[in-house]
Design a protein that fits this description.
Length: 328
């Protein structure tokens, strides 16, 4: 009798285990990740994000689930992808792919906590009431990549002191980035005595025409402003600058890794760790309204010496000594 009871108990335990596993899975917190570009283009960023989550005690697949939605550079898909994540009842919605994803997330829900990572001013574009008191259901991290526009011009002038004719590439479909980038860059160009041509690319299909126009204008250097369109096209932009023998600077490492000459911008590792830290804090019960918007302040300078050699450019020791990474 006792043996049958024991077997019954064991059998009951065996049968109840799948139910317990399903209950645990259902109770697991879910993070919705809304990104503009692709999984391949976000490898380092997502690693930093997951590292921060792990530091907070959350490991994907163990006690939290991350659901990724990649727009593959098609920003028009973002509202649909954001709505899909909201319908799946995620615990936190992360919009770390820039302004377009943050606005799509904000439009999709007024109740689910949102953590954004953007380069634009979150107050100006209506994401939060203020930096110190975000108010609603959103908070996050901003970069200083727009503010670094003048410094990018200064770096190109330091590298190419005889060049007085440069160009600025902007995406007018994201005015929250394009307009301040143009404004601060024009002011810096005037101060440096540079002629600055401002060219607009609304999609990847405009890039070939843009580079043809640059050749017509006689611009001898290119500054690419922060924008997810250009980040998604880092490899193509790097190839085009080499094809047209045009020294260029962008904000992210991917550009230099793909053959671009220089990158100067916010540290992506710091940026996404800060985003991950806020997600961890919200999962532990803190409210977005109580978490001030943070600013990632660490910047990185990367140089591709192989590209410099191809372009016939010699980097001064002063610049090489300040580089965080040199690709040879």
């Amino acid at each position: 009798m006792r043996r049958r009871d024991a077997l019954g108990l064991l059998g009951g335990a065996a049968l109840s285990w799948p139910r317990r596993a399903r209950a645990q899975q259902q109770a697991m917190a879910v993070i919705g990740m809304l990104a503009v570009t692709s999984a391949e283009g976000n490898t380092l960023r997502m690693r930093a994000f997951r590292d921060a989550l792990a530091t907070a005690g959350y490991v994907d697949g163990q006690n939290v689930e991350i659901r990724y939605r990649w727009a593959e550079a098609h920003t028009g898909r973002l509202p649909e992808l954001a709505a899909e994540l909201v319908r799946s009842q995620v615990s936190v919605l992360v919009a770390a792919g820039g302004t377009a994803s943050a606005l799509a997330a904000k439009a999709a829900t007024a109740s689910i906590p949102i953590v954004f990572g953007i380069g634009a001013d979150p107050v100006e574009i209506g994401l939060v009431a203020s930096f110190n008191r975000p108010s609603g259901n959103a908070t996050g991290v901003t970069s200083i990549n727009v503010e670094l526009g003048p410094k990018r011009l200064e770096l190109m002038r330091e590298l190419l002191p005889s060049v007085n004719d440069m160009a600025l590439l902007v995406n007018p479909t994201t005015p929250a980035l394009a307009e301040p980038s143009t404004r601060v860059s024009r002011a810096a160009a005037d101060a440096l005595g540079l002629e600055l041509h401002v060219l607009q690319a609304r999609s990847s299909g405009d890039l070939d025409a843009i580079f043809a126009k640059l050749a017509e204008l006689g611009a001898r250097a290119l500054i690419i402003t922060p924008d997810q369109l250009f980040t998604a096209q880092s490899e193509r932009l790097a190839a085009l600058t080499l094809q047209h023998a045009l020294p260029a600077i962008y904000e992210f490492r991917e550009f230099v890794a793909a053959g671009g000459l220089i990158s100067y911008g916010s540290s992506e590792t710091e940026y996404y760790r800060l985003v991950g830290n806020y997600v961890g804090r919200i999962l532990k019960g803190e409210k977005p309204a109580d978490l001030p918007v943070q600013q990632a302040t660490r910047v990185e300078l990367l140089i591709n010496l192989k590209t410099a050699k191809t372009l016939g450019i010699t980097f001064p020791i002063s610049l090489l000594g300040r580089a965080d990474e040199v690709i040879e």
